[in-house]
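Dear all,

This email documents one entry for the complex benchmark we are building for the journal club exercise. For each entry we list the sequence lines for every component of the assembly. Then comes the predicted three-dimensional structure of the complex as a token string, followed by one or two observations. Please use this as the template for your own entries, and keep the labels exactly as they appear.
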Amino acid sequence: MQLATWNVNSLNVRLPQVLDWLTAHPVDVLALQELKLSDDKFPLQAFTDIGYQAQWFGQKTYNGVALLSKSPAEDVVRNIPGFADEQSRVLCGTFDGVRVIGAYFPNGQEPGSDKFAYKMRWLDALREWLRAELVAHPQLVLMGDYNITFDDADVWDPVGLRETIHCTTEERNHLQALIGLGLTDSVRLFPQPEKNYSWWDYRDFAFRRNRGMRIDHILISEALKARATACEVDKLPRKNERPSDHAPVVLTLD
DNA sequence: ATGACCGACACAGTCGGA
């Protein structure tokens, strides 16, 4: 079984690339973030044409998430139960017995801002929901654009970006609290290239210079950790014309 | 230091992204 996550930065623009990628990498579940389209604009037919089913939770202009899958989704949940949210950020379903949560974590913009405070509240709510979800579903994966780096190894310029957004101690403590629930960063289970990032700024030739951050993650429960055989970032789509600024991350399970 | 680049919305310039 293979699972993947990809922030596509507009599904309108990136649909051909998503279709190409899925054809070349027929994963069982692909979580998408930043659809930037309303539900009535979701291109369902394009995915059914290549053998995929879909769940989607869109929003005009901003946010929006989807789960594309070979098998049908069961027990679908939209956003974090009990956390009132105008923004479409979380989509959850069970696929072949695996509880899959696709999430687009808030950006936070700048420490001290209202958006940062929302990010912290959102992270609190996510953690408390996950705590219960893990009891009900031992085989669980949380994947998406976390907008948080684990540590300086995830940052191209840790000195220059010290305590800036995605790199603050407060955000990293929240990420460690998810680890504290019994989740594991699947990328770091396996040997990786040096400076292994998942996002690069569009500006200043950042991809060519590998000036990036690893902010897209796949966290897995103990039961899934026992099944994990590989996890890697696929940088190839970032080399396309009109690429997303994020690259897909792919997890392989036995 | 600032802006760079991109997408949406709208059709200019602003906002949000990260």
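Observations: The radius of gyration of chain A is 17 Å. Helices of chain A lie at 11-24, 44-48, 114-136, 169-180, 222-225.
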